[in-house]
Design a protein that fits this description.
The chain is an all-alpha fold. It has helices spanning about 5-35, 45-75, 125-130. It is elongated, with a radius of gyration of 25 Å. The two termini are about 40 Å apart.
Length: about 130
Amino acid sequence: MPEADPSPGRTFIWIIACILFTCVLAGGGCLVAYMLLPESQVPSWTPHLGITLICLPWAFWLLTFLYRIFSRYCGCRINIVGIGKEGLGDGGDANAPGDANVKANNNGIDRTLSVASHESQMPLSKSMAS
């Protein structure tokens, strides 16, 4: 299986970061306008909009945090337009060819993984009897 190109995921992260940064700037602008302009020139919804826009990154972080917790608990991840490694419930392959986290020794076997271990899989009581 060919290694997925991480560029779309990185672009998606930068787009989200720019949107959240713009929300913070716009919310700050609303609050500064509410503090500096006379009360007759500022609409009553300006401070509410400012607080909402400033809190939007915190809400995004909280929802992302809850998604990560529940997705690990339920065992499924949502794949948006090919962005991300996991699909719905497939869990991915930890030892996929080209995986950056797997480093092989001279024999091509990673001895740190339990999958590559040459130890017996039999329970101790059965192996003692034979």
